[in-house]
Amino acid sequence: MRETLQEAGEPADYVYFPTSGIISLLTVLENGMMIEFATVGREGMTGVPLFLAMGDSNMALVSQVPGLTLRMRAVDFLRVSQSCPSLAAVVRRYCGTMLALVAQSAACNRAHHVDARCARWLLMTHDQVGKDTFPITQEFLAQMLGVSRPSVGASTATLQRDGLISYHRGELTILNRGALEASSCECYAVVREHYRQLLD
Questions:
Q1: What is the bridge-based pairing of β-strands 34-40 and 69-73?
Q2: What is the mean pLDDT of residues 110-130?
Q3: 171: closest CA among 141, 148, 130, 127?
Q4: Beta strands 59-65 and 22-28: pairing type?
Q5: Does 39 share its domain with 99?
Q6: Where are the beta strands (DSSP E) in 30-132?
Q7: Separation between Cα atoms, residue 143 and residue 87, nearest integer Å
Q8: Average per-residue pLDDT in the chain?
Q9: Which among 118, 142, 124, 106 is positioned nearest to 23, based on CA atoms?
């Protein structure tokens, strides 16, 4: 948990393909503040900027939920994606899904209340982890949402009081997924549909 896989501004040495756990993609601001703009779970990979030849960026990769991942040297990934049209086609499609996710996240961060955003984030994490209980601290969740820790504390306390989640000592359990979906903003359903189309 919280292992840094790539520092902001550094070239990507590897492309990661999680088989369990989740990797956070973070934008790092000049003051050092990091805000999550996307996550990668077992449905995806981290090499989108590399594939799109975007060069170095202020993006960092951090292990959000511990798990296993496959990795491939960046130079090998580029070579294989150029020589294997079927891989390139899948990666292009994933790039489109990731662009839709980033656009939705930007709108969500601007337009929706932290409670709804917190519910959306927990639902997406639940989908990507594939189990009801996963490790997360309020401090890390606040960092991912780009809000203060007291704001996240208030949101998770409300969700716990209403019986949607259980949170104890850095472990969160989803208790009532249907009610959590009802508490989320529209963005969760939009992003889930993009992932459904990708996996279909």
A1: unpaired
A2: 92
A3: 141
A4: antiparallel
A5: yes
A6: 34-40, 59-65, 69-73
A7: 34
A8: 92
A9: 124
Contacts of 75 (CB under 8 A, 6+ apart): none
Amino acid letter at 156? T
pLDDT at res. 17: 97
Main-chain phi, psi angles of 138, to 5 degrees: -65, -35
What is the CATH number for 156?
1.10.10.10
Question: pLDDT for 59-105, tens place per residue?
Answer: 899 999 999 999 999 999 999 999 999 999 999 999 999 999 899 98
Which of helix, strand or coil describes residue 28? Answer: strand
Residue type, 106: A
The helix/strand/coil state of 118 is helix
| Amino acid at site 49 | P
What are the residues whose beta carbons fall under 8 Å from the beta carbon of 106, sequence distance 6 or more? 37
How is residue 100 written in tokens?
């839709």
The percentage of residues in the chain with a pLDDT greater than 90, rounded to a whole number, is 67
Question: Residue 21's domain is classified under what CATH number?
Answer: 2.60.120.10
Please state the domain count of the chain. Answer: 2
Q: Which residues contact 63 (CB under 8 A, 6 or more apart)?
A: 1, 2, 3, 4, 5, 21, 22, 23, 24
